[in-house]
Amino acid sequence: MAETMTLKKIAGQLGVSYSTVSLAISGSPKVNQQTRKTVLELADSLGYRPNLNARSLKQKKSGFIGVIFPDFSQTYYRELMRDIYPALKERGYTGLFFTIDDNEDFSGIVSEIQGRGVEGVISGAHDHSPLMPLYKLGIPVVAYRRTAGVPFSYVDVDREKGAYMAGAHFAELGYKRMAYLGTHFEGREPRLIGFKAALSDNGIDLPDQYVVDGQGMEGGFTGMQKLLELSEPPRAVFAFNDSTAIGAMRAIQMRGLRIPQDVALIGFDNILECRYMTPALSTVAQPRQATAENLVNMLCETISSKSAGMRHVLLEPELIIRESCGARASLQTS
To answer: Is-contact 258 329, C-beta < 8 A?
Structure first.
């Protein structure tokens, strides 16, 4: 009765029918997107939470899985979501895909996911903690990347190992003056930690001036410009991801410098564009398809078993040697 009274209150405040509110809360396509958004926002402000147990008795299974990732401008996430979609479809589920900005409060997305009666959630958010209300309601959540402070099962890639491979490869090629370009989270980023460890193991320092912040094509471009303005620019650069490396390539080439003869580059992710760049970009590949399959399988197993146990899978990266690192060229290093 309490749920019915709350729905009637929402209907009265909005001047719509009880059935419209009920359909909007349940995610029915009979209600337009704007009306659904208005209803969900008011429901959230009133602290309304649908009775999922009662709904599941009426509807059995919704067949919906919520999928949350950072915005589509980040190529790797776009490609990963593209792999998650068929993996869900193969298991008989429909993915409800949502994208968020890094600093966005996505409580509204959580409310909408809850209102659609999803059976589980795959989260690629940088902070998974806003999903705890769903978890407490018994909705399984599987995370892409481990996050401290939440009891979610997760699938991750050993980024520290991948970065170590990049640094060790540069060292094998004889480079001495190397730089890291990208997000570093005050030294806590696994890619910076792994890269720095590889250099240290080869007797090479990574001075602070060779650690420059910048992510994405624009960040890679401006960050590389800063590195090139140093009195002794780096001879080799490891980038946080491929988009950052592509921006760096542009900055290098605009200075009239050659890749890899003047500056060598290695990226991270192995997005599709890497192989079509000039020169083709060497990179550390994340096993994207295996990541998607593990995320979906782990979630489906949790849904079917109702297991509350926390599990994790750590996948191995792979160093992809193309042209930009200089392994295929005759180099004069310094």
So the answer is: no
Which residue pairs, CB below 8 angstroms and at least 24 apart, start in 287-292? Answer: 287/157, 287/315, 287/316, 287/317, 287/318, 288/76, 288/79, 288/80, 288/83, 289/83, 290/315, 291/80, 291/83, 291/144, 291/155, 291/157, 291/315, 292/80, 292/83, 292/84, 292/87
Q: pLDDT band at residue 4, thresholds of 50, 70 and 90?
A: low
User: Rounded to two decimals, what is the model's pTM?
Assistant: 0.77
CA–CA gap between residue 146 and residue 334 (Å, rounded): 38
Q: How far apart are CA 176 and CA 225, in angstroms?
A: 20
Q: Give the tens place of pLDDT for each residue, 296-306.
A: 999 999 888 76
Report the candidate in 263, 275, 287, 261 with the shortest Cα–Cα distance to residue 321: 275
Considering the domain delimited by 159-286, tell me its CATH architecture. Answer: 3-Layer(aba) Sandwich (3.40)
Helix H or strand E segment including 83: helix 75-90
DSSP 8-state symbol, 271: -
Q: Which two tokens stand for residue 226?
A: 């800063």
Neighbours of 181 (CB within 10 A): 30
Rounded alpha-carbon distances, angstroms, from residue 135 to 25, 113, 122: 19, 12, 12
Q: What is the pLDDT of residue 203?
A: 97
Residue 129, pLDDT > 60, answer yes
Place of tokens 């599987």: 142
Helix (H) or strand (E) holding 144: strand 141-144
